[in-house]
Amino acid sequence: MATMMTELKTSRVVDTAEPWEIAEKLLLTGWERQQLYSGDFAMKTYVEEDLLGVTRKTVDDLLSSIFLSDNKAKGQGKHPFKMQLEEMLEYYKYRKILVEGSWAKIMGDDLTRHAVQNFLARWQDKGFGLEITSGPKMTVRRLNELYALYQKPYSMVGNTKGFADDRVLAFPSGCRGRTGQKVLNCLGSLKAVSNAEMKDLIEVDDVGSKRAWSIYWHFNRGEVKE
Q1: Same domain as 80, residue 187
Q2: Pairing between strand 32-33 and 94-100?
Q3: Dihedral sign computed on CA atoms, order 76, 79, 84, 85
Q4: Do 19 and 80 share a domain, yes or no?
Q5: In angstroms, how far apart are the furthest CA atoms of the chain?
Q6: This model's pTM is above 0.85
Q7: Is it the case that residue 104 has pLDDT exceeding 90?
Q8: DSSP string across 82-123
Q9: What CATH number is attached to the domain comprising 173?
Q10: What is the residue-averaged pLDDT of the chain?
Q11: Which of 143, 179, 182, 212 reaches 20 to 30 Å from 114, CA-CA?
């Protein structure tokens, strides 16, 4: 595991431990190699400080991570793959589990299918999206597609599980997901948001002065209230 990642050196990074077969193609499309503290790929989103992290598992890796890690956990009191996913919850605002390869091994046995689907469902409930690719070539293509998608402000709403309140669409770009929902939950209505002062918006957890000013300006069009 690398030392703690404080910032990305560029807008999209592939971890140094990822196979050259994938890294080489990503480097040709603007990615850079860097040791990541958590996850295999990381990228900046439309809101630069809100990073997206991706952990890649081949189907065989996924099965080993779930079942062999379970056995290891019994002896050591910890589950390596779950620990990695918990770290990603801490360091990335948006998170993806990318499973690469044929699902024949998973779907061919009911017990295996049940265990894998339940495992993934639990982590989806915690905020992980699931990406499925057929092999390294599709993985590279999908990672580039994700980077392009998350440069667009509207992508934040469609990929923020649990924040599907249509009222967030009234917020400015960059605040139409988790931030907008937190403000609505705190203030109660769009009318209250539009009448809020800067100090009211800043007091909402995790909003910060930058987003608070963006929301205030958006609803007041830069006019100072008397």
Answers
A1: no
A2: unpaired
A3: negative
A4: yes
A5: 68
A6: no
A7: yes
A8: HHHHHHHHHH-SEEEEEEES--HHHHTSHHHHHHHHHHHHHH
A9: 1.10.150.20
A10: 84
A11: 143
